[in-house]
Design a protein that fits this description.
This is Glycine zipper domain-containing protein. It comes from Stieleria neptunia. Keywords: Signal. It holds the Pfam family Gly-zipper_Omp. By secondary structure, this protein is mainly alpha-helical. The protein folds into two domains: 102 residues; 56 residues, no CATH class. The protein has seven helices and no strands. It is rod-shaped and about 140 Å long. It starts with a helix and ends in a 58-residue tail after the last helix.
Length: 223
């Protein structure tokens, strides 16, 4: 006759032990894997043990084995999630560094007022100077003192007008670096085979009966 009370008692104890966090810093996937693995293992072990009148022991063994296996799988998932976060942070840092480098390069390539004065004094035409200003841009905004100083140093009004209308230099289109593909790690988990306990009832053979004057006769009762 199978008793369900020991099975329920052992199953409850196993579930309480598994669901109680043993470490405050336990990872979520590891804890979740241990919990669900322990529940599944306890149920499976209890059913197998119940077939052999060992429901409590089966639930305990199955719960422990399931918790260990689930914890290992959950730990691997936690490591993969942490590695993915590191990849994302590295990718974002690369993008920010690239943008800062591009911005610095653009600012260094912008035309300065000294460049305009030097080109004007060298005898370059207004069209050449204006083209250079439009291609490289100009940082800042001309004030009255700048306009007077440029005019006094021989810069034409057309070039001064180009400096007033041109905008800041345009940064090139950002080049998006390809995100590294996640590394797939295959981890094999070997689970021990369930322990099956079989009980066999051996037949009982009675003692031989002797009759007077005759050879002993043996009677056997078959079950």
């Amino acid at each position: 006759m199978t008793s369900t009370r020991p099975f329920g008692l052992f199953l409850s104890l196993v579930l309480i032990a598994i669901c109680t966090p043993g470490d405050a810093f336990a990872q979520a996937n590891q804890q979740r894997g241990a919990t669900f693995g322990g529940i599944a293992g306890a149920i499976a072990g209890g059913l197998i043990g119940d077939h052999n009148d060992e429901a409590g022991a089966g639930a305990a063994i199955g719960g422990v084995v399931g918790a260990v296996a689930g914890g290992i799988l959950g730990n691997a998932a936690d490591k993969e999630a942490a590695l993915e976060q590191q990849r994302a942070a590295y990718y974002q840092a690369q993008q920010q560094q690239y943008a800062a480098q591009q911005q610095a390069a653009v600012q260094q390539s912008a035309v300065t007022l000294q460049d305009v004065v030097s080109m004007s004094r060298s005898g370059l035409s207004d069209q050449v100077i204006i083209n250079q200003v439009r291609q490289r841009g100009y940082l800042g905004k001309l004030v009255v003192a700048d306009i007077i100083a440029l005019h006094q140093q021989g810069v034409s009004e057309n070039v001064i007008t180009a400096l007033q209308t041109v905008g800041p230099p345009r940064a090139p289109a950002p080049v998006t670096a390809a995100r590294p593909t996640p590394t797939v790690v295959e981890q094999r988990i070997y689970r021990p085979a369930p322990i099956i306990i079989e009980q066999h009832t051996l037949p009982h053979y009675p003692l031989p009966h002797y009759r007077h004057g005759r050879r002993p006769m043996y009677y056997y009762r078959h079950h």
